[in-house]
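Bench log, entry 3. Co-assembly request; chain sequences pasted below exactly as received.
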Amino acid sequence: MTKWIRRQSLALAAAICTTALGTAPATGTTYPEKPVRMIIPIAAGGQTDVVARLLQLAIDKRKLLPQPIVVINNAAAGGATGTRQVKESEPDGYTVGVFHMGLLTAPAMGVVDYDHGAFELIGQIGRTQVGMGGLADGRFKSIQDVLTEAKTKPDTVTVAMNIGLLPHFVPLMFQEDAGIRFRYVQAGGGAVRLKSILGKHTELSLFSGPEFLLFQTQGIKPLVVFSDGRVPELPDVPTAKEIGIGTVFEERIIAFAPKGTPKDRLDLVAAALRTAMDDPEVNERYKGLGIDGVFIDGTRLKALLDGLKGPITKVGDAVRKAKTEQGEKK
Amino acid sequence: MTLADAFVHLFTLKAFGIMVAGVALGVSVGVLPGITAGMLMALTLPFTYHMSSIDAVSLLIAMFVGGVSGGLITATLMRIPGEPNSIMTCLDGYQLARRGQPGRALGLGNCSSLVGGTLSWAALVLLAPPLASLAVAFGPFENFAVILLALILISSLSEGSFLKGLSAGLLGMLVSYPGIDESSGIVRLTFGFSALEGGFNSLPVIVGMFAVSQVVADALNIEANANAIKTTMRGMFMSLGDYIVHGWNMVRSSLIGIWIGILPGVGATVASIVAYTTAKNLSRNPEAFGTGSEEAIVAAESANNATTGGTLVPILTLGISGGLTDSILLGALVIHNLQPGPLLYKNNPEIVNTIFATHLVAHLVMFALMTFGIAFFARLIAVPRAFVLPMVVVFSTLGAFGLNSRAFDIWVMLGFGLLGVLLEFAKVPLAPFVVGLVLAPVAEAELRAGLMASAGSYMPLIERPAACAMLVLSAGLFVWPFVRTWRMSRADGYGQTGPEPKEPS
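Structure output for the full assembly:
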């Protein structure tokens, strides 16, 4: 009995060691000659995790890389420890990360002192549209109603948010562009914000396109979307641009690697991810999840994110300044 | 597929095999300290991609049920919680086992687990929609008041010195503070260590405090412990009389478990602590708690299993998850192209009914497996500790590392193991520490969310009826132990029956 358990625990320990040793520098010339770790800085089951795992499965199934990809979730500190783990890993192509726009919002909040520039960007592997909405039978019938109310009575319209992430930053950017002020209430992930609105504890929140489709049946109505043009699945919802407010923002799922990872290795991973995204089965699943399977390569993605850096930092600075003032008052 | 069909399907060979395997694996990781059902489910998730959605859901639910239950075995026999939610069972289960009744202690836990699980199943199947709308109506202020109620219970958890209990509780709260402040998104109290950005995760802290410190204590005393417990397997099943004696306790504790299961982010550990302390406060023999009280085991084990049904309510009705295990269940549904939430009942009744059927049958299978398992595990107690203790350390370390693949968590576990040894040495109770550790962040987040919504006004705490009612109840619970001791001391003529009350100065 004890012998059996000892053997099992040895096997387990060996398994753990192999994953832990993923950081050891590569010795040979053919890449990859051992499994590639994919670090996901969010808990298993979230949208970013599901996308990463779909691609991992497709890559393994179709043998797009000669070695398997091992998924590791490191969800501590809202993703900060996971991105740091990638940043501090050996740049040998055996560590990649998959995260979302938290890569830009975390530094803006002062949670980490590095942004997307501290990594090699492999590419965008998915994108979702986002918008704001509230209860269908609530007091706001359109986004104009919201603007009027928030303009005449600043700091009264409540917005359920997830601090430091898009549901916080996008409404902040929107209010900046529209010259209004919301009152923010910390809630959490999409479903928790839904609960907050259904229970009439808050009035508005940011949701993704697929979340709106899902939550519509529970009485949530999208009022505005922040995409460039109207979202095909939500044809009746105006964009912010249409009402004369310039806020455009999308959630992007981003694959990245430690700074200094050789370009040929990055290209191999990028090619594998891209081919996996074209897999009809994966395509079908992306559709089901409401995710645009638009691949954007590292260079173009970097330019895009660089452009978003300014407005995000501006909003983040405002939040941090307000916090310090609040702290000083006490 | 109706519920009846789902039951019939579950008893087909393949489906039944998958479910039994799930329960068995769940119970096994439950027994192993440090390794939780959540980790097992996260590891299993990729394998479920290739299964049918019905089998996948059934497997994960079975693991969930098995994992919640298995921890009581280690807790009872070794005073080490197999799962964090079995810490309360350590207190009394172990004492009862040491008094020569390990069979009775394990049997009480096992039967209570079954009853708690079954009652929560009934609540899930019959009351899910109304329970969910009640949960939605509960806003930040109501949630805060509920948590406050649980925090107040710390006062009655402290055996011996009230002050020591309170200090342990405050220490637990303090440990929960470093890391990202959930309400402002800003990193606090990390003292420049980037590893502390994620804070002290409660799992390595609890494993360190309870498992590692116990290993050290046992190792220091290794000869004496070798044959301390005489194993008699009598009392493996509760008699009808037992059910009558403990009936109300079981129902009450199960109701507590169901409701706490529904609340996001609180979980089975807190449910068992709250049920335990409630039972202690209402008991005729509160002084027996901590010395091998049957009531205590029944309360803790009915409550933690009852959270399983409660947890499933928001997943099925709203598509909301709070903890790790339910996020994984939710993720499994999403991966299988199923939309959790109210539409699930309409679009995929086969999934809802499979969840219902599995939840009940898995509890029965768990009960049977545990009954056989207990007879086997109870013999482990005769195995010299020198063989068992290193294994405990190995599994605890694996669990701490496996959580987020960080070596830092192992150091946290060892550090808090040392703290646990010191606290035990100073006779400071550990349970209030856990209450503070787990509840303070939730209480803080809820209160601050409420204050954000009310622009800083505390009035909703009084204006909202449910919140106000719970505040009043908290005040009552705070005063009650003092009143009771006072009344007892008057009735008996002496005041030695309960913990000596002292006003905090």
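Residues 144-245 of chain A form a domain with the D-Maltodextrin-Binding Protein; domain 2 fold (CATH 3.40.190.10). Confidence is low (pLDDT under 50) at residues 1-28 of chain A.
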